[in-house]
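Lab notebook, page 48
Experiment: co-folding of the full assembly
Goal: obtain a model of how the components sit together before planning crosslinking
Operator: M.T.
Materials (sequences as entered):
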Amino acid sequence: MSEQLNFEVPTMAEMIAKGEDPEILFWVGCAGSYDERAQKTTRDICKILHHVGMKYAVLGTEESCTGDPAKRAGNEFLFQMQAMTNIEVLNAYNIKKIVTGCPHCFNTIKNEYPGLGGTYEVIHHTQLIQQLIDEGRLKAEGGESFKGKKITYHDPCYLGRGNGVYEAPRKALEVLDAQLVEMKRCKSNGLCCGAGGAQMFKEPEKGSKDINIERIEEALETQPNIIAAGCPFCMTMISDGVKLKDQDKNVQVLDIAEITARANGL
Amino acid sequence: MVAQIIFIAITLAAIALFSYNIKKVIRNIQLGKSADRSDQSQKRFMTMLKVALGQTKMFFRPIPAFLHLIVYVGFVIINIEVLEILIDGIFGSHRIFSGVGFIYDFLIGSFEILALGVWVGCAVFLIRRNILKLKRFSGIEMTKWPRSDANYILISEILLMTAFLLMNAADAKLQILGSQHYTNAGAFPVSQYLQNLLPNSEATLVAIERGCWWFHIIGILIFLNYLPYSKHFHILFAFPNTYFSNLEPKGEFTNMKSVTNEVKAMLDPSFTPEEAESGRFGAKDVNDLTWVNLMNAYTCTECGRCTSVCPANITGKLLSPRKIMMDTRDRMEEVGKNIDKTGNGFDDGKSLIDSYISREEIWACTSCNACTEACPINIDPLAIITELRRYAVMEESQSPASINAMLGNIENNGAPWKYSPADRFNWAKES
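Observation: model returned without errors.
Model output:
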């Protein structure tokens, strides 16, 4: 279970050069590319894709921000510039299916790109994991046992309320034989981690508390061993919260892809 | 005969006044930009049936949902009685529907039980607001008028129901006395207990019965004309509002066509722009919003479910989605009054942003959609916040410094952080 990848991650450019067509494009996202913590999730998604033998590719340095934070911040110009440039790249590679490592990328490409000429089948990595489990291609064996561990899942807004994906991440956790506990505010009533709508990139407005603290207090009430996330921004906010509460020794914050990879000894 | 003429005159005047005010409301909504919601009529109709008629979204909070349902069903069904009152009033008849025999007994009996339900429901609502002082009904936007508005509505309904039950009690007693005109009709499961409270004199009973009858119908006509000034407008607007509500995934923000044209022209000089509404980017004032946003504002009944789930509001920030809706309505009414006074194009130097909604509020939003999910009638405060942000960023270039830095990074490096695009794939190489 090393951090390192013991295989090459194929890029679209290489694939095309070899005259091959991937089954799915893995859209890594900016956080997944640059943020150290999110990079781990990115590598684990690759490990899962590699493990099940799915033909995939990434864009590598040809990928650029989807424009999501610009759009939520109100800069529609910048968003559409990014979107159209990305769509040009995606269409040139004749991409049909995309899996993203981030609910924000997922939402943007799935919902906002079609109107600008980019129509693809887009899924979030937790949906991919669920599909692979359903198809019997992915199990939870050969790795770390999560049996009996208490896991609480935090719904990312742009996956949950934004796109109605509540079950896939939970199904991915169910195979672990762990103890899933829900927070008081979950699913459609889930509380935001505080990072959405471009908040990730600014200081919060004056208030009585930070949103991630409000959320982490609720998560800790369930006395979890693990808080599961499905979004790199939530990951940052929740990890920060756990640290601030001095609980980072007792509570792990892990992405569903990381948990899946660990359970399979990848 | 005189009574009939007075009745018809009052009714016509009430309807005329209501039509006049409704026209103004529609004119105000039409100040908004166009938005196409003519698609998927079947899905829209089903949404309206489920959310407005079926009140499905209310049941996330079962206690107020149950009370609200009683008041709602009572209000709707008792209106059959109002139809009888109208016919009786116009033709001078008395209990015209009583010809249908036992069905009439059943109807009046059900009305009475519902009326009691409405009475109790409204009383509990008053207690929740004024004695228990539920947190949801407070907040910076819940100033004197919105609080009074809620109380006026509840007290009016209690008075109307009281009048209805007293009228029936007097009527039933007159029926027992064998009074002229008061034919035996109706069942009185609730008002029978009020009979003993009433005097025995026939003349007094007739006065009470007639008094309550007039009070009930005039009360309803006044109530009708109070709606355009009140949060209670939702009883009408809930239906079109849910019908025209957003059916796309909540995470999806609209793509601005006017921007698409400019971006396409920038990327491809030979591009011929498609038609798009001109005007400023985003919203400075209410007329930059769409008619759907503006209809949302008239529909809002200020219940505060949105604000009570807003992560920003919960953690003490200034933002309150309910305030966004109330401010939009207040500003729209103000603009409407300006037009009434001075005609189109009058500039009072105010705008929705800054004069009503502050920058601090719009930048506190996480766009998490908790507010739109919580709204029992599909109002979308987030759409308004987004338009205000678009104005601030694209027309004024005014956004928090850190947001500016993030935008600059995307523009220059294709990522919201200051990293080189050449390093984007390093995650696969390092450990």
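Interpretation: Chain A touches chain B through 76 residues (CB under 8 Å).
Next step: discuss with group before ordering constructs.
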